[in-house]
Design brief:
single chain, 10 helices, mainly alpha
Length: about 180
Amino acid sequence: MTASDEALLAGMAADDPDAAAVFVRRHQARVYGLALFVVGIPAVAEEVAQEAFVRAWRHADAFDPRRGRATTWLLAIARHAAIDVLRVRRDVPVDPVVMVETIVDPDPDRLAERVATGTTVNAALARVPREQATAVVLAAVFGLSGAEIAERTGVPLGTAKTRVRLGLRHLRDELASTREVETP
C-alpha cells in the first residue's frame, strides 16, 4: 500500500528523506510540466521544479489538509516559484496568454486544462478596455508592480492599480461569457 500525500508531507516535516523521495517521484512530472508551461524554457523549468520541492520540504509542516489537497498546495508553490523566476528574468519574452491564464485562474489543477484555450484568452483580452488590458499585460507578462506600471504609463499609482484590478475583472467576465456560449 502506498502512503498518502499527507503522510509523505508529515514525513518531510520530520526530515524523512525517504518520504521526500517518494513525494518527489510521485509529483515531479506535474510540477515540471506546470513550470515548463509558465516559464517556457526546459532548463529553467527544471530549476523551478527543484525550487518548488525545496520549498515544499521547508514548509511541509505548514501544510493543512483541511485547506486543500497536497497536490494543489504543491502546484501552487510551483506556480509561485515560476512567477518569481519570470519577475527576475524580465529580459526573457513570455507568451502573454500563459501569464494571463496563470493570473486569471490560479487553481493549478485547472491550469493545465486551460493551455489549449490560449486563443480564447487572447480574444477575451482584446475585448477588455485598452488601458486595462495594457495594465494587465504589464503586470502579468512583465511582472511589473503597480508603481512600475504607473511610471511606465504616466498615470498615478492608484489609477494603475485600479486598471489592473478592473482589467482582470473584465477578463474574467469575458472568459466566463465565452465558456457560457461554448456550453451546450
